[in-house]
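Justification of resources, computational component.

The compute hours requested in this renewal are based largely on the per-chain cost of generating structure records like the one below. Each record pairs the submitted sequence with a full C-alpha cell output. That output is archived, and it is also reused by downstream analysis tasks.
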Amino acid sequence: MSKQLPAVASGLCYHCLQTLPHEGAITHSLAGQTVELCCYGCQAVASTIEEHNLLHFYQFRDTSNPLQVPLLPEELQELKAYDDERLQEQLSHSVEDGREITLSVEGMTCSACAWLIERELEHLSGLHSVRVNATTERVTVHWSPERIRLSEILQTIAGLGYRALPFQAAQQESDFKKRRRYFVNRLGVAGLATMQIMMIAIALYFGVVSDLDDSLRQFMWWISLFFATPVLLYSAQPFYLSALRSIQARQPNMDVPVSLALLGAYGASAYATLTNQGEVYFESVSMFTFFLLAGRYLELLAKQKAMSHAANLIKLLPAIANRERADGSYEAVPVHQLTLGDVIQIPAGNTIPVDGELLDEIAQVNESLLTGESRLQTKTHHETMLAGSIPPLQSIRIRVTASQQQTVLASIIALQDTALSRKPKLAATAEALANKFVIRLLVLAGATFFAWSFIDPQQAFWITLAVLVATCPCALALAAPTAVTGAIHRLNRAGIIVRNADVFARVEETKTLLIDKTGTLTTGNFRVVKWHNHQPTSYSDSEIQQRIRELERDAVHPYAQCLKQWASEYAQPAHERLWQRLEQVHGAGVSTSAAKPEYCYRLGSLSWIQEWHPDFVPTHAQSQVFLANQRAVLAEVELQDELRPEIESTLAALKASGVQLVMLTGDRDVYAQPVANRLGIDIVHAQCMPADKLRWLEHYQSQGSVMMIGDGLNDGPVLAQADIAITFSQAADLARIAADVILINQSGDGISTFRTTALRCRNIMNQNIRWALLYNVIIIPVAVAGFLTPYMAAIGMSASSLLVLLNSLRLYR
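The structure output for this chain reads:
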C-alpha cells in the first residue's frame, strides 16, 4: 500500500465508526497498519474491501458524521461481494441442504412490507424457506449456494425498494441509534409546530381574537400554514412511504387512511387559507402527526429493548484466544481463525470465546450470561463448555467444538429471531382483521362523504376526515405484536427460548402436563450407588466393567454417561473387540452380535434382559441396568439421580392451578413411584417405550390440549405431537428440534416462569384486542354522526394506540 490510511478517533471502530465494546476490540492488520474493529462482521468486510483493492474507501470517506458514512464502498454495494465463501462463513451458518442467514432490511415498516418481500423471494429457485419479521425488520433465508447466489437474493429485495444486508449483532445498536434519530428529528419538528399552531388555534376557537378583522385572521392562518407545511412534508414522511408500499403489495395498511387524512386536511386547510373562506385544521394535521410519531417511537423503543438482550451477548465474547502450539506454548490468535480441534487456554475470570470440550478433570463455570443463573456449575472431563461462560476460579483448557455462528450462544440468538418471526394465531388474526378493517374504513369514509353531501355539504369533508382519523386501526394492529415481543424479551432474560410463538395462545387451554422422569424431573447426573457381579467365577469385576465401558462407548443416554465414567475408573482398556456389530435399541439399551453366544451381550432394562432369561430376579429391587449374554445374567447396577432444583415447588404450583400431572417414563414402577409420590404426581405410566408414550399422549389429547416436558431421544416423537413441547438446552438433538420452548436455565422453575409469562401475554393480547375493538365500535357512530372534529379524532385515535402500547410494556417488568 503506497498511501497511509487515515486515522479515526480513539475508541471508535475503524470500519463502522461506532463505539468499540468495553470488553475489548478486535485488532486487525489493514494495509500494513494495525486498526481496531468492533466485531467479526466489520473485520470480515474490511478484509473483503482490502482483497478487492478498494482501500480508497477509507481514504476519501467523510468521518465527521459517522451515521452518514456507508458501511460498504459503492463498488461492494452491488452485493456480489457477499458471494465470497469466507465472508459467508462469518455472517451465516450451515444448516441441512445449504446455509441460513439473517438479513437486516431497511424500510420495512409493516406486515404489508413483510408480505411483499416474502412473496417475491418465494419465487426464487434455490430458496428452501423465507421468514420475514416486520417487528424486528429482519428476513431469515435458508438457501442452497449451489443453486442461487446470496447476491441474487439481496438484489431481489433491493428491486422492491428495500435495502437488505446481512444482520450483524454488533451493528444493531448503531442501526437503532440511526432509527431513533430518524424518529426524534421528525417528532421534534411535529412537536414544535404543534405547540405554535395550537396557540393560534385556541385563540381562534375560544374567541380571544374574535374582535379582529378578517385580514388579521387570515394572517394567522398563513402562520399556521407555514408551521404545518414541514410537518406534512417532513414529519409525516414515514406514513406516506409505508402507505405506498402497502398499496404496491395490494395489502392496504393503516397508513393509507392516515396519509389520506393528513393530505386531505392539509389540502383543504391550505385551500381555505388561499381563498379566505371555510375552516382550517392545521392543528389537526400537526397534532395527528405528532401523536402517531410518538406511538411509533415508543414502539421502536420496545422493539429495541426486546432485541438487544440476546443480541448484545455476542458482543461480550473475546476477540482473541490463546491457542496451544505443538510444543505446548501458547499464541494469541483472533477467534475467527480457530478451527475445530484447536486447543485453547482460558485464564481464570475470562470469558470462553467458543464452545469446546473440557480437557481438565473438573472445573466450575458461571453460565449466567446464557442461563441467568449465577450459581457456579460443575463440569467434568469431556463435558461441553459453552461460549459466554466464565471459569472464575481456575484457568482451563478446552478443545474447540464450535465457533462463531455455530456456538450455542449464536443459536440462542437465531432461535429468538425465529420466535419473533413466527406470529401466534391470535396475532395473525388481529393483523388480518386490521387489514380488512382498513378496506372497510375506506368504504365507510366514502359512504359518509356521500351521505353528508346531501345533509350538510360544507361539513361533509371534515366529518369524513374525522372518520378516517378516529377509526384508523392502529391500536388493533399493535395489540398482539407488542405483547408477544414483550413476553419473548422477558423469557429471554430468564434463560427461556420460545421457538414457536403459538404457545402463548395455547397455554390457557392446557390442563394436562405429561412429564418424563430421567433428565426432566431429575438432573440426569447419575452416580453408581450399588452393583452386583452375578458370575464372579467366570468374570472378574474389572472384566465386567470393561464390557460395560465398551458397550456404552457411543451411547448418549444419561445412564450411559454415568456408566462410562464409572467403568473407566476401574477397567483396563480392551485390546480386542469381541463382537462384530453393536446396536442401540431405543428405550431398551445396547446389544451386540457375535459368532459365540458368550459374546452376544445386552446391556439395558430388566424387561429386555428377561427376554433372554425369563426366570431372572434382581438381587437389588432398585437396580436399573443389567448386563447379560445369551448364557447368563452377568451383573446389575443401581444408579441414583437427584431431583432438578425447584421442580417440587414448580409442580405443586401447577397442580394448585388445576393442571393434571402425569409421569411417562421408561423406568420400572419401583423407581418411578417414589419420585411421583414425593412430587405429588397422581398418575404414573411406567416402562413406556416411545410408542407407548405416543399412545398415552394421544389418549390425553382426546380430552384436551397437552403440554409435554422431556429431554431424551425417545421423547422426540412425543414432543413433536404435543400441543406445547418443552425441553432443556442439554437435551438430545431430536428433543430440541421438536420442542416449542427450550429452557437454557436448567432449573425446574423455568417451567412455571414460562407458563406464568405466557398466560400474562395471552391476557394482555386479549385486553389489547378487546379495547381496540371496543374503541372502534364506540367511535365509528360518533364520528359518522358528525360529533367529532378532526383534532378530537386525532387525540382519540392516538390515545387508543398509546394505551395498547403501554399495556404491553407491563410485560417487560
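The mean pLDDT is 77. The longest helix spans residues 749-784.
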